[in-house]
Each structure stands twice: as structure tokens, then as C-alpha cells.
Amino acid sequence: MEQHLFVLLCTMAAAASFFLVIPTNYLQHLPIYINVCVAVFGTFSLVLLNEACKGRYHTKSLFFLFMALLNLIWFPNGASEGSLPFYFFCLLMYLPIFFRGRARWLPLLLTVIDGVALMALELRFPEWATPFRSEQDRVSDNIVGFAVTALSCAVMLWTLLRNYEEERNRLVSVNEQLQRVIVERSAVEGALLQNRELLNSVIDGTIDAVFVKDVSGRYLLFSKGACQMTGKTLEQVLGRDDHALFPPEVALEVLRMDREVLEGNQAHTLEWELDGVNGERILLEVIKGPLHNKEGQVVGLFGIARDVTQSRRMAEELRLLNEDLERRVAERTARLEAAMKEQEAFSYSVSHDLRGPLRHINSYGAILLEEFGPALEPEARGYLERIRTSSKRMGDLIDDLLELSRIGRSELNKATVSLSDLAFGIGCKLQDAEPARRVDLLIEPGMQVQGDRLLLELMLENLVGNAWKYSSIRERARIEFGCCRHDGADAFFIKDNGVGFDMAYQDKLFGAFQRLHGAEFEGTGIGLATVKRIVERHGGTVWANGVVDQGATVYFTMPNG
User: Fold this and answer.
1) Where do the coiled-coil regions begin and end (predicted)?
2) CA-to-CA distance for 527 and 401, rounded, in angstroms?
3) What's the pLDDT tens digit per position in 478-514?
4) Concatenated DSSP letters for 392-428?
5) Neighbours of 398 (CB within 10 A)
6) Bridge pairing between strands 209-214 and 219-222
7) What is the DSSP string of 426-443?
8) What is the pLDDT of residues 324-347, one digit of tens each?
9) Is 525 left (phi over 0), alpha (psi -120 to 50) or beta?
10) 487 or 519, which is more confident?
11) Which range is least confidently modeled, 65-69, 105-109, 489-493?
């Protein structure tokens, strides 16, 4: 603000000197000495203006230059009868704007002393003052002085008020922003506290021993699982090193391994035998790794210890069992075949037995919502809806898993199948189910393969259904089913303009229960696994390409014969 005002004042001082004061003095026939002084002042004002444009602001120079001008022309310009006393108001307003702290009081005192001294000299030596030639000249000079003073003071006052208004608005904006930051910070702190409580619940809920140490080996965190495994309490462990847990020789060995982890700055996995609480030797699988701060510096060590005694015992028993089974290959084959038959019967039995409880869950959930819904809290009704939704999803998963398992067991009844006709029929069903959707379904005619019609129809239902589902975000969807050449062989493709997917996750695309999209799209994650199983049973391969928000294309080969 001061720099902008200083440039403006220098401009006004030069302009007023050359275009207002000097012409007025000339018309009033004042001594040439006055105009010379005013011209010198205007010239220096231009010099200061040029310096200000270069970023150098000589505010004190303008002050003392103006004061010197007033002193030099006080008596030749009519003294107190002229316009010069008005200009002292400019000095008094100039001081608080461009001077700070103690540097303000000395020029203020100097200005007051100078004004009083000039008035005293005029009283003592009135003959020094050069009177105006006429009353009209005196009035004209006072008018010019008043106008210049009023304009200068108005500019400085206007600049101060505008700066005050801008600063007030800025403070209001900063205060509003600060309020938003406080609200956001409170929300973040609440989320961090919730996450910390959740993390502590998970750590305390696991049977594994979870611990954290500082670089000196003192324990900072010791989970309930660790307390149960060692028979120690938190008060006995926190703030102490491994000497509080183990015998001296064992503690030294543990601390030595900790130093290796910290110095190597990488995680280690090791096995450790420990005397359990009941006196039995237990085998632990321990993972230790370094902890880093946000600057990447190692500030501690974390560890997870799991009791693998029982699993190792079971592994040893399994090894002995496998050795025995190797000696009885024929019996194992017979048992395997019997187990496969039992598994098939078991799958159907499980599917039937699981559907009964699911139906009961849905039925009783509906009864609760119908009869007691108005009395329940909205949160309770939401939970009931989630229960019913989850039970329906579980039923869908059971059906999909059974369908996936049947694909591997069923025999292939190969025949000539028109993929074009199958895709057209599936598209018509989808369009009938959602008549409001605008979908361009482009199917290349005459595409035929040798394969099992039922399995191929199931495969196309999944592929066309996926394209239909993931292109639902488009106002006008486009689904294309055609044939192309790939590595010298025919390959079929189904292309859509839907949400697409990130190619970094293409390896997960055809795995069971692997979904690359959220709950906004229905599905169980079995569809593409089913497609892959069917294609591979026919001796083909399947893959996909996609771009996020630009659509996806699924390719598959289907050798004839």
C-alpha cells in the first residue's frame, strides 16, 4: 500500500509543481525565486518517482525535500497569509503512513518545531514576509494551496481506508478459512482416533504376539497375545527391553537380532523356541522389520510372533501320512475317485442345506420389517436390510459356485453352435428386461464353432451380461461382438464402451471372487472365472484389454474340432 501511495504522491507533487503552482505564481507575479524552488522540488519528485519505479522508495527524502521547500518559500510567498500553512497538513498526514515506531516521532517533533519557529519569526520580523500585491492574489494562492492540500490528503486518506477495507475483508476470509480448517482438522482427528481404536482392537483381538520397540530395544507396544504367550503383564514389559522377558543369554541374542534388522533396514523372518507359560517348549515364527518416520529414518522395530508348534506337528504328521499314501497308490486312487463322487453329492447337499437357513433369514427379516418396522430405529431397519441383502448375495454365490464346479465335471457334447444366434438371443433378453436403455448391439453374423451349446450359451451370457452391466453408465451404450485374427488364428471379441478397467489388474480379472469394481455394479466375481473355465475346457484361451472409463474388450479363442 505504501509503495503504491508513494508513487502516486510523487506523480502528484511533480504535476502540481509544474502545471498548477508555477503557472499560478507566474500569474500572481510572485518572485522568480519561488518558481525556481518549486521547479527544483518538482524535478526531484520526478527523480524519486523514477527510483520508485525501479523498486527503490525514498520516502524520507520526499518528506525532508517538501519541508525544505516550505521553509525556503515561506517568507517570499506571503508567510502565514499565503497557502503554505495548508501544506503542513500534508506533512502531518504523511508521517503516520510512511514512518514506523520511534522513527515517526522525530519527524513529527521536527515538523511541529519548524511550524512554530516560522510563525515566531514572522511575529518577530514581520518585514521579512513579502506581501501579496492584491487581495485577489492572496485569495487565489490560498485556493490553489487548499486544493492541492485537500487533493493530497484525500488521496492519502482514501488509500488508507481502501487498505483498511481490503485488510478487513482479508481477515474475514482468513477467519472463514481457519474455521473450515478447524472443522476439517477435527474430522481428521476423529477419523484418526477411530482408526487407532480400530487398529488397537485388531491387535488385541489376534492371538499372535504383536510388539513394537524403539531403537534402544525398549518395548513401546505389547499386545494381549504377547502377554498370554510370555506370561508377562504390560506393566512388566512397557518401557523395558528383553531382559524383562527372557533370561540374560536369551535377551542378548534377541537384542543382537534386533540390531541386525535395524542396521540392515529390512525385514527378517526367523524361528525361535521359547518356554511357554505351562512349561512346554513352543516354536515361534517371528517376523521383524524396521519402523520409519515420514523422513524415512529408522525409529524403531516392529514384530509379529506366531505359535506354529501345532501346525508344524500337523505338517510332520502330514508328511508321514503322504509317505504312507505313496506306498499305497492304488488305494489312494480309489479313495480319490470315491471322494470326488462324495464331493459332488456333498456340494448338492450343502447347497440344499444352506438355502434353507438363507430362506429363513430372508423370511424372518421380512417379518421383522413388516410387523416391527415402524417401532425400529432407522439404524436397526438398515441392519435388517443389510442382513437380507447379504443372505441374497450368499445364495447367488452358492449358485455360481455350483455352476462353476459343474463345468469341470460335466461331459462336453460338442456340436456346431452359432455364436451369433446365441449372442442375439441373449441381447434380446437383456433389452426386454431393461427396455428404457439405449444400447447399440452389433453382432457379426455367421460366427460358428464346435462346442457344447449349453456351456457356450452360459459363457456368452456372462460376457454379454458384463458388457451390458458395465456400459450402463453411458446414455447410449455400444456393445460389439465380432471376430478378428490373433497370432494367425481366429479370435472372437466382445467390446463395450463402459467403465473399462486398469490393465495393472488384468491378472485378477479371471479369478474367482476377484472384482475390479465396487458395489455400484452387482455381481459375485464368479462370471469371468466361469468364462475362463468354459473356454479352457474347449481348448481355447481368454484375455482382456481395457482402459479406465473408455471401455473393455474380452477376447477368446475356440479351436474347432
Assistant:
1) 308-342
2) 10
3) 999 999 988 888 899 999 998 888 887 777 777 765 6
4) HHHHHHHHHHHHHHHHHHSPP-EEEEEHHHHHHHHHH
5) 18
6) antiparallel
7) HHHHHHHH-TT--EEEEE
8) 888 877 776 776 666 656 656 666
9) left
10) 487
11) 105-109
Measuring CA to CA, which residue among 435, 352, 424, 455 is closest to residue 395? 352
Cα–Cα separations (whole angstroms), residue 331 to 334, 335, 514, 531: 5, 6, 37, 35
pLDDT digit string (tens) for 248-267?
A: 888 888 888 888 888 888 88
Least-confidence region, from 263-272, 437-446, 531-540: 263-272
Name the 3-class secondary structure at 270.
strand
Stated pTM of the model:
0.36
Q: Cell numbers 505389547 label which residue?
A: 222
Whether 409 shows a pLDDT value over 60: the answer reads no
Phi, psi of 281 (to 5 degrees): -80, 130
The answer to whether 9 and 37 are in contact (CB under 8 A) is no
Residue carrying the nine cell digits 455350483: 402
CB atoms within 10 A of CB 62: 22
Helix 2-16 and helix 32-53, axial crossing angle in degrees, nearest 10: 150
Q: What angle do CA 220, 224, 229 make, to 5 degrees?
A: 100
* Rounded CA separation 212/202 (Å): 15
Query: With the CA atoms of 223, 225, 229 and 230 taken in that order, what torsion angle do they form, in degrees rounded to the nearest 10?
Result: 20
Q: Are 284 and 274 a contacting pair, CB within 8 Å?
A: yes
Residue 210 pairs in a beta bridge with: 304
Inter-CA distances, 185 with 174, 192, 194, Å: 16, 10, 14
Q: Given its phi and psi angles, is residue 373 left (phi above 0), alpha (psi -120 to 50 degrees) or beta?
A: alpha
pLDDT for the residue 527: 74
Q: What is the pLDDT of residues 153-184, one digit of tens each?
A: 888 888 777 877 887 888 888 888 998 988 88
Beta strand extents in 43-140 (DSSP E only): none
Using only C-alpha atoms, what is the Rg of the chain? 46
Computed over every residue of the chain, the mean pLDDT equals: 81
